[in-house]
Amino acid sequence: MEIGEIIAYNLKKLREEQNLSQGQLAERAGVSKVIISQIEKGDSNPTINTIWKLTSALSLPYTSLLEMEEPRAVYVKKKERSEISEGKYHIYNYYPKNAERNFEVYQIEMDAGCDHTSVGHCANSFEYLVLTDGKITISLNEKDYILEKDDALYFDASQPHRYKNEEASSAKMTMVIQYL
């Protein structure tokens, strides 16, 4: 990747992470909005002085616009996850919500006979489930959804919902909660 492309990508990403418009950044940095727009499109190679102004306005080091982020791999072992357990309902949070992502990823294990009710999550949240083992019933809005192995369901998670494993064996599912 060319240096102009790297600067364009980084400037847009860093500006958006700080929830700044191009105009707001231009005002902070003392440069024109047109220059910022041209840089972000890759139509302009900024001067060293402009890079200093932009990184100072973003309260970041000078090199933050010049270096590409190294690809990351995050390896998570289940045994390193803390288990939250409520009787026969066991939950492992693999990826908590943070500044980089607006979702969480969980593994849920339900022992035989498990019956768990969730009061619901915050407004504008959605739950995505994939049953990887067993059979469960999810009750939502007075309707039951029976999921068998490899079935999936998503729904508005802000409302109360219930998970039941009425089988003689355990069930396991992957859950993603998205926050909009």
TrEMBL record:
SUPFAM superfamilies: lambda repressor-like DNA-binding domains (SSF47413), RmlC-like cupins (SSF51182)
Keyword Transcription regulation tagged: yes
Keyword terms: DNA-binding, Transcription, Transcription regulation
Positions of the HTH cro/C1-type domain: 11-65
Presence of keyword Iron-sulfur: no
Protein name: Helix-turn-helix transcriptional regulator
Protein source organism: Jingyaoa shaoxingensis
